[in-house]
User: Fold this.
Amino acid sequence: MKPDFQRDLIPSDEVLQLIGAVNAMKDKLLNAAQQWELLNENGHVPATPSYAALLQHAIDAQDLSRDVLRLTADFARSPHHTTRAGSTVLKHLGTAATMSSYAAPHFTETAECALALPRSANPTDRHYLANRMVTDHASARAFLRRTSESLRDAAKELDDHLGFQRFLATLTRQEGPPAPPPPRPGGRHR
Assistant:
């Protein structure tokens, strides 16, 4: 194996650990995006949406975003972010960090509309607030999904890097030291 390749490889155990962390975070975000519903079973905004429940979505989204930011910062501080694979992973993690930070404010806007909805006497205002709630909540969930997709892409890049390492390992095993030449008949050497 050439020294250039060795410098560009992230140790397998670290790659496996990072893949596990990224996949766990990806699953949390995807589950949140799928479970945090605003609309009722008929597809309508509830007459009195729960401000507390919607605010909890914002709190939970903020916690998820903090975890994504920490994961990204930890990888950015590692020496591996400068490798070819590492720079691509960091790009995906950076996108995930950005997308995750957008979700909480949209959930907060949804909660704010839910708080104003019961106090609105004008049907036009109620309609506007309900539509704004749906849009903000859908946007927040979309940011969670996009975060999950960026994490998926980071995990795929890490998995590809691991596959490349395995490929190089098989090549180096095949390229062992050359076998000594067979002895010449007659036992005399020139």
Q: What stands out?
A: The mean pLDDT is 85. Residues 172 and 178 are 12 Å apart (CA to CA). Helices lie at 3-7, 12-35, 51-77, 84-116, 123-174. The chain is about 75% helix and 0% strand.
